[in-house]
């Protein structure tokens, strides 16, 4: 099913999303990769305040390339999400509701998503130039020294993603191959 959502991403919005749904996201999305995630979690472990309010927000695992003239951002394709798995449960416990990346997630992350009513979206790897066109504004809000991996506040319009894992733990990375194999048997 195709759906459109506008951030912030509340629990009610998350509960309406099912694995396999195609979603167009508009609104504010933050960026962050492993170096930024490590810093965020280090702050939480010290009992310090985060540089961004992650409650009801989405983090896009992306390190965009530099913008060309007359562009807001360069290529903005997803990073492999598994690299953030050791940090993700702590951020979900603090109110993060969505993540965008590519690839599977650990069972620990999936259990934390179920506990915290969160969702994992997959973006198309290799389509970074097209995804970058959905970004209408980009501003570095933390860790500028990380360059392309700095935390950015993006304003996006109709950013296309698919629900890879929903808040009930339904996992497209498991469901999809099973359905494909089952449908293939019908062809014989």
Automatic annotation (TrEMBL):
UniProt keyword annotation of Cell membrane present: no
Domain Fe-S hydro-lyase tartrate dehydratase beta-type catalytic: 6-174
Record keywords, A-Z: Lyase
GO molecular function: hydro-lyase activity
InterPro entries: Fe-S_hydro-lyase_TtdB-typ_cat, Fe-S_hydroAse_TtdB_cat_sf
Keyword Magnesium: no
Domain of life: Bacteria
Family: Belongs to the class-I fumarase family.
Protein name in UniProt: Fe-S-containing hydro-lyase
Protein source organism: Acidilutibacter cellobiosedens
